Each structure stands twice: as structure tokens, then as C-alpha cells.
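This section describes the prediction task in plain terms. A model, or a person checking by hand, is given the sequence of a single protein chain and must write out its three-dimensional structure as a string of C-alpha cells. No templates, partner chains or ligands are provided. The sample shown here is typical of the held-out split.
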Amino acid sequence: MIRYLKIILVIFVGLQGFFYFAENIANWEAAKGFVSYVFSMEGHEAYPNPLLPPITSPALVTLALVVIVTGEFLVGALSLIGAFNMVAAAGKPQPAFEASKKFAILGCGMALIVWLGLFTVIGGALFGMWQTQLGDASLDGSLQYVLTSGIVMLFVAMKDD
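The expected answer:
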């Protein structure tokens, strides 16, 4: 029964990645506008001397968004491949099921890279997203995704006896 719980949780991580990927693709210009806003560092009165100068290059903004959506796609793809592999190994002996978790763990790890690395570290710490209402709301969301994906990753990685 625990194996199936792990599979369901990995499916949810994968769906989260694909849903955010699809939302960003469907709202490409709005997403690009958000990244542009973060890179511009507008509204940063609390800490007015950033480590980097504002970035206004449309090419760099587009590149950053491509990196984000690629990461979200990989969260979805790796997690769902992992869930499929886990389903295929669910009735097999413990070593086979343990081996089937590789892509699921990679998918959850990719979620940490996207929402911890890109949003919290780069967006929050480097670009000061926390200084604006829109950026702070995004950081709140990324914290939820980091925590849930990290918990799922740890739970899935636990050995099944």
C-alpha cells in the first residue's frame, strides 16, 4: 500500500510541473512580463543597492523564461516516467522497486532546482523578488512547491521493507 502512496505523490509532483509548464506556455507574454519585471528590480526601495544591475535585455528575459519552462517540463516528464516505472515494479521484490524510483527522485530533485534554485535563490535572493508584492507572492508559492516536492522526494527515497 505504501508503494502506491509513493506513486500517487510522484504523479502529483509530475502534474504540478506539467501544469506550470502549460500555464507559462499558454500565457507566454504575461510570463515574460513577470520575468522582465523581476529582472528590472523595479520597486526595490527596501534594498536599493542590488548586487547586479537591472537586466532589461529582451533576449536574456526570454532565455530565463525558457530555462524556467524547460525546468518545469523536466519536473513533469521525469516524475511521470518515474511513476510509470514504479507502477511497473510495484508488485516486484524490494530491490526492483527501489531501482524503479530513480526517475521519480530525479523529477522531485528537478522541482527543487526550479523552485528552490531558480525562484528562491536566484529570483528571491539575487534579484530581490521579496521586495515587491508580486515577487513576494511568487516566493510564497515557490516555498510551497519546494517543501512538498522535497518531502515527496524524501518519502519516495525511503526504502520499502
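For orientation: The chain is about 80% helix and 0% strand.
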